[in-house]
Design goal:
The protein contains four helices and no strands. With about 170 residues, the protein is mainly α.
Length: about 170
Amino acid sequence: MIFRRLATFLLALIVLCCPLPALAQATKYYPPPLSYSNAELKGKDFSGQTLRAAEFSNANLERANFTGADLQGTIFSASVMTQANLHGADLSNAMIDQVSFTNADLSDAVLTESIMLRSTFDNVDIRGADFSDAILDGAQIKELCTKATGVNSQTGVSTRESLGCR
């Protein structure tokens, strides 16, 4: 009986004091998200990178290159993405609110189920972009429908259809 209690106590002590193998195993499969909040990333090249759930809030991403990047679930709230290249990037389920996309390339990007409220799209290229189930302001949709053309190469959905253009 005493031996069993001692063994249980020692096992509990080992688990509480040395959880590192379990933690190391968990981070192997679920790495912590990257944070670039408030960063100066003008012209930075992120092309082809996997940046799922990364945070770019209030970042200066002017002329940044995200061509073909995996940006699913990424947060870009209140960032500047003037002249950014997001051609073919996957921005599914991303938080892209209050972002300036002036002169940006969103061609062939996947923006499904993204939240894009109060973002600006002045002179933006959206050929082949998929906005299916994205949350946009009515004025944004009206503006984007004036330039919506093409079909997304990854999802097969037309840009006009994904925006609900008439």
